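User: Structure please.
Assistant: Input sequence and predicted structure:
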Amino acid sequence: MTLESKLQDGISLNYAFRLQPETGPVSFGEMTRLGSVLRDTDLSILFEFLVQPPALKPQGTHLLDGNLKIVMAARPTPLPPIRIRLEREVTDEPAPVSPPSAILQALSRLTLYRMQERARAESQNGELAQATRSLKNLAAHLLEQGHRDLANTVLLEAENIQRKRAFSLTGEKEIKYATRALLMQEGEIST
C-alpha cells in the first residue's frame, strides 16, 4: 500500500508511526510506502501533525488530501485508488471530549518507543549525560506501567553508558525491540 498525498499549507507532519500490522516509523512524503497488509488485517497509523494558526479555518482544517493505492499480488490490474482526506473541526470552545482509549494507549506506548529512540540518538551524538537521563526517565515510565524487567534492562544500560560511554549491542537491541513489542500487544490497540 502507498499513500500519495499533499499536506495543506500551514500543516506539517512531525511523526508517523505504523501500529498495525507491524510496528515501526513511517517515512512520510508525497509518496509514502505504508507496507504490506494481509487480507482481513487492520492497518493503523498514528500521525502527529503540527498546525500553524493560519491553517485554522472556521469550517474545519484540512490536514491532508491524498489517494491510497493498493496493489494486490493476486490481481493483475491495480485496484482503483481510495480518496483520503483528513480534516478536523475547529472551534474556539471545544467540547470536553476524551480521546478514545485505544488512541491514549497507543500514544502512551509510542512515547516509550520514542524515548528510547531519543536516548539512542543522544548516545550516538556523544550527549552521554542526556542519554543517561533519558534512559532513567524511560525506566521510570516503564516501572509505572508495570514493565519491571524492561525497566531494569534500561537502568543497566544507563549504567553501561556512564561506564563505557556507549550502549552495549545487546542492550540497545533489547530495549529497541522490547519497546516496539509493547506497541504490538494484542487486543489493546484497535482501529
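Residues 101-183 form one domain.
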